[in-house]
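hey can u check if this looks right to u? its 504 residues, i copy pasted from the old doc so theres a chance i mangled smth
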Amino acid sequence: MDQNNGGIIGKINTPTTTVASGVWSLDSQFEAQSGSTWPLAFPQTTIANACRFNDGSSDYLAFTPSGETQRKIATFSAWVKKGLIDGGTPTIFEIYESSSNQVEIFFDSSERLNVSNRISNTAHNLVTNAVFRDPSAWYHIVYALDTTQGTASDRQKLYVNGTQVTSFHEAGYMNQDTNSVFGTANVNHIGRSQYSFDYFDGYITELIVIDGTALDPTSFGAFNPVTNIWEPIAYVGTYGTNGYRLDFADSSALGNDVSGNNNDFTVNNLTSVDQSTDTCSNNFATLNPLVRNKSYNDGSLAEGNLKFAPGGRAIACSTIGVTKGKWYAEFKATDAGALYIGCGQLKGIDALSLTNPIWYDNNPGYAVGYGAGGSLEDGTPSTSYGSGYSDNDIVGVALDMDNYEMYISVNGTFQNSGDPTSGSSKTGGVTGAISYNPFDDGDPIFFFVSDFSAAGVGECLLNFGNAPFSISSGNADANGHGNFEYAVPSGYFALCTKNLAEYG
């Protein structure tokens, strides 16, 4: 399992102590260790916001420096969470002078990380052997350039999650004192390549470029000594004239440079809705592009894996599954069509391929979904449950894994007189209306949306607390996490890693 991913299930107690440079969380395992010394100086920081990119919308940011500085030494740092895993070549970052002179950081069609420095039409590429196929993981990428170094492998260094990459599919190092396009007065792109015309799909936060200094990852992150997970720390150094830092804290100006240099980026096809609270500090669930319907169409995902468009009996489920706790999510049916919305289990392993490694089986006892017509579907004949929903209605799903029950709301009103706070009495829950209870056999349960029509009718936006659509009212859970259109039922929480640590 990748570091910083969403697949963490287990209870962690999290008392906190404020230190000079941030907040330190002490978990129960550390508390249990006899004679342990609490490392109060651990400089953890919280990343509050990210920017969500959608390749189908051609989202990107652009900035052109006013002049050239130096061209031999630089650092790039960013936290990245991938969206689609589709064999494309999503570009995270680029500086473009011409097709003969540019630098690009991207994932290639085999999902390997690639840093390509093209100088006078000669490519100097670092291509990892490792592949990056986890759509639930945040990756911290650092690239350090210093062509003044005498040793070729010291001129370009690549790090992922605090560890230097030393095993490469391809390693092409520059000659000593080679001039790159870093530090030049050429356009800088985030989320787009002018060279290949590829766009990024997913999430980016804390993107930093340092002009004139080559740094290792310890300037931007540290291993938590309790969890051994690589976590962000606040960068406190200088940026150089053409350097910048984007934290995406201002939803009305996502291209703001907060380094003090005012090297602000122009926003292209991004709106305030594209600001996200899904970050490396608090990883929210999304839909999983690796989960597919074995027998029918894959459907399509977009908007950082929060938009589902079926292709005919397609299905998509959350990246995070739970075995206990109480959880809440919202589904905006932009085209109600033949959608079914609910929760269930994953069953079966199919061929180990990139496009279809896991399948979702809707046999009786595995899942239950609520249809636009107001019926429940669990693989047996449909059962009437509520009034149904129409285009642009918001369907709320409250999953109680402490009592093995699910409740459905439409625009804030729970159907069948359901009461998600009723505990063991399960008032108005769905299991009283179906033949099997898919929640009580010990398997992890996932939120899902599906289309049971061969015609592929329906479309849905998912909100696990990181909504890809405008929220008019704004409701967080009791821990202050998430942003929902309707009030979160008492005792229920957004599906994110901070809540999983406490309640999962």
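The domain at 50-276 is CATH 2.60.120.200 (Jelly Rolls).
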